[in-house]
Design goal:
The protein has helices at about 5-20, 20-35, 190, 195-200, 230-240, 255-270, 285-290, 325-335, 355-370, 450-465, and strands at about 45, 50-55, 65-70, 75-80, 80-85, 110-115, 120-125, 135-140, 155-165, 180, 185-190, 205-210, 215, 230, 245, 280, 280-285, 295, 300-305, 320, 340-345, 375, 385-390, 390-395, 400, 420-425, 430-440, 450, 475-480, 485-489. The chain has ten helices and 30 strands. It is an alpha/beta fold. It folds into two domains: about 5-140, Jelly Rolls (Sandwich); about 155-489, Purple Acid Phosphatase, chain A, domain 2 (4-Layer Sandwich).
Length: about 500
C-alpha cells in the first residue's frame, strides 16, 4: 500500500517539487500554518502557451505544469527565478518519473526540446529578496500543443462541454482536503483531472453533474452508498475549467440538508476562482432550487436548470429540485429570456444501454417544451443521441470522474466508457452546428480519453444505440486521427 496519511503524501509531492529537505520544510510549513490554505504543490499552476502566470508571494519554490508534444521547441520565459528544474513526462496519477539537473535561465529564458509527449513540470527557485516571480510559455516550433477535440479550437462558436457523474471520493471516505484512495492507491485531486484539463481549455461553458454532497460534516443518510467530498475537490474541478454544475441527483442529500447548505457555501466560495461559475438544482428553498442559472457567454444568454430524483426535502428549507418538479422547472426555464436553454436531468435506469419508453417520452416532452439540450445522467453508461427538431437529447453521458463507482472496465466494452460531449453553437444564428464526443476511460480513478482504436470501437457502439432510438438519431463520423466522434448539423 502507498502512504496512508495525507502528510506523507503531501511530503512526497513537495519532495518531487523542491527535491531537498530544507525546501520541504519551507514549503510545507508555510502551507500548514494557515488552516484554510492549500499547500503550494497541491495547486500547481497549469501553463498554457501564450499566457503568463505569477507565483504566490509566499512561495519560495514555485512550480507549474504544462502539456507539450514530442519534438516541439518550448521557450520558457521567467522573471524572479534563479534556477529551474524540468521534470516529466509525468505518468497520469503518478510521480514525476524523470529529473533534469537545475538550469540557470539565460536572460530569463530557457529553450526546451520536448523528448516525449505528455505533462511536464517546471520547478523554480526564487531569487533572493525577489517578490515577483512568473513564467510564460512560447511555442518556437510548428506545433507544441497536444491534440484535443477533432474540430480544434472552434473559437467562432459558443462551445458547451457536458460530462456526467462526478464525485472525487468513494463511499464514506475520510474527510481529506488533498486527495483520496482508490484500490489502495492515493491520488491528489489535481492528479485525478490531469488527463482531461487540456480538453476543457477549448470550451466556453463546461458542465458537470456533481453526484455527491460537498461537505466536511454531518451524518450519512441511511442508504447503501453515501458520498461526500471536500470543498477543495470542488475547487480542483473549477481550476481545471468547469464553470457549470448540475446539483440535483440521488446523492446530493447524502449528508442531509446540512450537506446541501455546505454545498451551496462551497459553490459560492469557488467563485473566487471563477466569478462566472454557476449551478442549478439546489437552493435555500424550492423556488431557488428550480430557478435557472443564466450564463452570459459570447454575447448569448444560456439558461441552465437541473432536476433529479432521490430526496424529498421541505420546500421551505434547503431543497433539491426533484423529477416531480419538472413541470415547474420547465415553466421557469421557458419564461426567462435566453438564447439557449439547457436542462440536466438525473433519470433512467442504471446500466441500461437503451433508455426506457418512459424515459424517452420524458426527454422528448422536455425538448417539446422549449429546451434546446437535455443532458442526461444516472445510468453510469453512455446511451444514444437524438435530435428532435432543433433540440438535442443526450440520454446519458455516463460517468465522468466518479470515484465512488466500480471499475467499469470489468463490465466489458459496452459499459466501460463515459463520454465528454462538446457542442458548437453558431453565435449569430443561435443554432447547433457541431457535436463532438470523446469516449472516456478510468472514470473511477484518473479519467483519460480512450486511445484511437478503442475510441473508434466505442463510437460505433454509440451509433448503434442512437440508431435504435429511431427518428432523429445522431450518427457520428469517426475522426481518423483520434477515433473520437463528430457530427455536423
Amino acid at each position: 500500500m502507498r502512504a496512508n496519511t495525507v502528510a506523507r503524501w503531501l511530503a512526497r509531492l513537495v519532495i518531487a517539487g523542491a527535491f531537498i529537505a530544507t525546501q520541504v520544510c519551507l514549503l510545507f510549513g508555510t502551507a500548514t500554518a494557515a488552516a484554510k490554505e492549500l499547500p503550494e504543490f497541491f495547486t500547481l499552476g497549469r501553463l498554457i502557451f501564450g499566457e503568463q502566470i505569477s507565483a504566490p508571494a509566499s512561495s519560495s519554490a514555485p512550480a507549474w505544469t504544462f502539456d507539450a508534444r514530442a519534438g516541439s521547441q518550448v521557450e520558457i520565459s521567467t522573471t524572479g527565478l534563479s534556477k529551474l528544474r524540468l521534470r516529466g513526462p509525468k505518468r497520469l496519477g503518478g510521480n514525476w518519473n524523470t529529473i533534469w539537473n537545475p538550469i540557470v535561465p539565460k536572460a530569463g529564458k530557457v529553450l526546451f526540446k520536448v523528448p516525449r509527449s505528455g505533462r511536464y513540470g517546471i520547478f523554480g527557485t526564487r531569487m533572493f529578496n525577489t517578490q515577483k516571480a512568473s513564467v510564460a510559455l512560447t511555442c518556437r516550433s510548428a506545433s507544441c500543443e497536444l491534440p484535443t477535440w477533432p474540430l480544434g479550437a472552434q473559437s467562432a462558436l459558443l462551445r458547451v462541454i457536458a460530462v456526467g457523474d462526478t464525485g472525487l471520493q468513494p463511499h464514506r471516505a475520510n474527510d481529506d482536503p488533498y486527495g483520496g484512495f482508490k484500490y489502495e492507491e492515493y491520488h491528489l485531486y489535481t492528479e485525478m483531472v490531469e488527463g482531461i484539463e487540456r480538453y476543457l481549455d477549448h470550451g466556453d461553458l463546461r458542465i458537470a453533474n456533481i453526484e455527491t454532497a460537498i461537505t466536511q460534516g454531518g451524518k450519512p443518510a441511511k442508504k447503501k452508498f453515501t458520498f461526500r467530498m471536500h470543498p477543495n475537490a470542488l475547487d480542483t474541478l473549477v481550476r481545471a475549467g468547469f464553470n457549470g454544475f448540475a446539483m440535483a441527483n440521488n446523492h446530493a442529500g447524502d449528508y442531509g440538508v446540512g450537506g446541501i447548505t455546505d454545498g451551496m457555501t462551497a459553490l459560492l466560495r469557488a467563485r473566487r476562482l471563477n466569478p462566472g461559475l454557476g449551478y442549478a438544482g439546489i437552493g435555500a428553498n424550492i423556488a431557488v432550487a428550480l430557478r435557472p442559472h443564466i450564463f452570459n457567454v459570447k454575447g448569448l444568454r444560456v439558461a441552465f436548470s437541473s432536476v433529479g430524483f432521490g430526496f424529498n426535502f421541505d420546500p421551505n428549507g434547503p431543497y433539491m429540485a426533484r423529477l416531480s418538479d419538472l413541470r415547474s422547472a420547465l415553466t421557469q426555464i421557458k419564461a426567462v429570456p435566453a438564447d439557449i436553454r439547457i436542462m440536466a436531468i438525473h433519470f433512467g435506469s442504471e446500466r441500461a444501454l437503451k433508455p426506457s419508453v418512459d424515459a424517452q417520452t420524458l426527454a422528448r416532452n422536455v425538448i417539446d417544451a422549449g429546451v434546446d439540450v437535455l443532458i442526461g445522467h444516472h445510468p453510469h453508461v453512455v446511451q444514444g443521441l437524438q435530435r428532435r427538431g432543433r433540440g438535442l437529447i443526450l440520454f446519458s453521458v455516463g460517468n465522468f470522474l466518479l470515484r465512488g463507482a466500480r471499475n467499469m472496465s470489468m463490465l466489458g466494452p459496452d459499459m466501460d466508457f463515459g463520454a465528454a460531449v462538446r457542442l458548437g453553437y453558431d453565435v449569430r444564428e443561435r443554432r447547433l452546428r457541431t457535436l463532438e464526443l470523446i469516449p472516456l476511460y478510468d472514470m473511477h480513478r484518473v479519467v483519460i480519453p480512450l486511445e484511437p482504436d478503442a475510441a473508434r470501437d466505442r463510437i460505433q457502439r454509440v451509433n448503434r444505440r442512437s440508431a435504435a432510438l429511431g427518428a432523429g438519431a445522431v450518427k457520428l463520423e469517426i475522426d481518423g486521427a483520434t477515433g473520437f466522434g463528430v457530427a455536423h448539423f
